[in-house]
Predict the 3D structure of the following.
Amino acid sequence: PVSVEFLRELPKCEHHLHLEGTLEPDLLFPLARRNGVELPAGFPQTPEELHRKYAAFADLQDFLNYYYVGTNVLQTEQDFYDLAWAYFNKVSKQGLVHAELFFDPQSHTSRGVAIETVTGGFHRACTDAREQFGITSQLIVCLLRHCPPADCLQTIEDFSKFLTDGTITGIGLDSAEKPFPPGLFVECYQRAREINPDLRLTAHAGEEGPAQYVSDSLDLLHTTRVDHGVNSVHDAELMRRLAAERTLLTVCPLSNVRLQVVKRVGELPLQQLLDGDVPFSLNSDDPAYFGGYILENYVQVAKEFPHWDHAVFAKIAKNAINGSWCDNKRKTQL
Ligand code: HPA
Ligand code: ZN
């Protein structure tokens, strides 16, 4: 297998990271105290206890129940800044060069936190990361698919200004996948395209849901990228299409293990994706919950695909650069 040092030096891009998913237990408890947020009855009381819960999620929904509690402790602009800054600080030591970052505005606006508070803190951290670490980044608004589509549409409207002034690069769709197919959000994506035709579009699909959700994301929502997407391998026609259209799948190895999508990273269909010439990137999803940041994800893949040499990882890194949403000038630098 390739060495950790090689993987650290490899210029890596991250396309699937939820900023709320970088909230470490060590920060969750002090923030809850500082902001006077009461944690639900029965919630773990120490970081150690919480880490033990995180090690044993039953599925996506079980994780989301913890994730949304964590989200509630974030209140001030400085909280959002501190959260994103802690992330940049960590990955600056892991060879990350470019990050496209999700956040869930509805989780905050539903508690009375203004979108300017959330966006302001995150945006400021992105600016500082560029200055201090040379890491470029973009922000992606994720719609919560368990919420009524009308709420999601309102979120798009509320973000109109940020969708056109360069603050927000794209739209995504996350949360509980299975009873909420992409078709429910056609109007939301259509409205986003109307507001800004250059907006980039992606959606979580094919994590717990079927390959059909991946096809529907492309056909109905007009996404040019798919988050997770690992269930695409069950549809040969779809695989050919992803390869032909150079649609990037943002795969999250450690997440897929922690959420019981697969038992081990080695079971992921990464070889099938390579053989089918389907571009994919490796990502951390919610690193504070799933036991690793970007480098740990690369390292685990290298361990479980020990026959992959430098050329394979160079190709993965190159596909990640090509599938990024930065301009060509920046891609050349990366
Ligand atoms: N899937 C769906 N929703 C999410 C995820 C995920 O991996 N992470 C944070 N919200
Ligand atoms: Zn995700």
Q: What stands out?
A: Residues 16, 18, 174, 204, 227, 285 surround zinc ion (ligand 2) (CB under 6 Å). The longest strand covers residues 136-144. The radius of gyration is 19 Å.
